[in-house]
From TrEMBL:
NCBIfam families reported in the protein's UniProt record: egtD_ergothio (TIGR03438)
Repeat recorded as keyword: no
Record protein name field: L-histidine N(Alpha)-methyltransferase
An individual GO BP term: methylation
Coiled coil: none
Keywords: Methyltransferase, Transferase
Pfam families per record: Methyltransf_33 (PF10017)
Residue ranges occupied by any Histidine-specific methyltransferase SAM-dependent domain in the UniProt entry: 21-319
Enzyme class: transferase
Entry superkingdom: Bacteria
EC number per UniProt: 2.1.1.44
The species this protein was found in: Ramlibacter pallidus
Taxon lineage: Bacteria, Pseudomonadati, Pseudomonadota, Betaproteobacteria, Burkholderiales
The keyword Transmembrane helix belongs to this UniProt entry's keyword annotation: no
Amino acid sequence: APTAEAANAPASANASDCEFGRDLVAALRARPRSISPKYFYDAEGSRLFDRICELPEYYPTRTELGILQRCAAELAQLAGPQAEIVEFGAGSLRKVRLLLQAFDAPARYLPIDISGEHLRDAAAVLRREFAGLEVQPIVADYTQRLLLPQGEGGGRRIGFFPGSTLGNFSPEEALSFLRRAAEVLQGGALVLGADLVKDPRVLHAAYNDAQGVTAAFNLNLLARANRELGANFELQGFAHYAFYNAPLQRIEMHLVSRERQAVTVCGERFTVEEGESLHTENSHKFTVDGLRALAMRAGFRPGPVWTDPQRLFSVHWLHA
Ligand code: AVI
């Protein structure tokens, strides 16, 4: 017989049905409230992120592309012939293309991504563009332990993790990701992009763009909950709030309630007070030395580092 609790449960949505529902309900119950930034990236969120990368204020994408263009020949030298490139995430065709073009007869490209659709598209484009390159997409969560297929050629295995996505992890998550990466890349290296600590005004502008694309990206989390979980968030009732937390060297993004309001998610009703926040993202910024020290703790031997003339962003070669 159903328990009293089960009998009272709403017929429509059930938090335990999906990870997003479960995590959002847990976030709304907790104090302070926070949720993983991975939930930004549904189709709409990924489209908004692509627009962020083109914004005049969002310097990381442009700057990293410029650095990669300038250091590609040196990366190719370090990698040697017939290297295998393992990309953690497959969101940056433009960036990996620079490596594939510069490397000496790259043998294989293994993009790892949670979205199979994203991977298929990326793989098809690169197969057409690079005849002779074996493209082997892997549908997996690269933050978990990975088993990669054995390399067949004699080349080195080179990991690629651009965009400073490492900065979206907590320090503990970053360390354990790097530890696992060092294991799977043993004998090869990791090419890692890391955004640098800088004038807070530059950072503030990058996450508070004039066109409001970053605000829409942040608010899309609530829109997504309305679409997927049957939640009833009033988007106008929440403000995008992003600031640089200097002691912790990170941009924090929050959604702050403009008024006292009630919301129902997965059949559970929550009250959100005026001024209360849901913490949606951290974007840690690094110093070159700090990043190298972190990489060493994870088992890498730091190699050359490249930056842009304004020292906004850095690209690291880390021997595994
Ligand atoms: C994906 N990641 C590195 C971006 C960042 O800058 O932390 C996500 C982002 N959030 C707001 N704007 C961009």
